[in-house]
Amino acid sequence: MNLDYLDIKKFLPHRAPFLMVDKVLSIDNEHVSTSFFINENCIFNDTGVFNENGLIENAAQTCSSIVGKSFFREDDILGEDVKLIGFISAIKKVTINACPKVGSTITTNAKLKSRFDTDEYSICTIVCTTSTDHKELLSCELNLVIQELK
């Protein structure tokens, strides 16, 4: 899949100003890597710093794309076939080492740890790290619920 043409807004239910992922750098059934440029108008801008809530929301949006990807056909690069909703069901562990400054680009990497699917929804556990300039900002383990809207 050519990720240059992937519009992440088509695959995540979030919209500005709550969209915390700009670009999918790589993705498969078990891993994802995303980037996000923090601008001054970001709702998680806390006096020039992207705050802890923003880091966690960026992680959750990144993580949801691994399982969310499985709801779409491989050739549906426009994200037109399915609409999803997802939410954090548990934050199992989170460590925040630092918060990045506005004007930074963060990179978030996530790996699927476990997944349980029903006819109605998917529940997953995902481990995630976020960094900027090779400095780890966040590490976490999240449980997410992803559901297709009918």
TrEMBL record:
Pfam families: ApeP-like (PF22817). This is Uncharacterized protein. It comes from Xanthomarina spongicola.
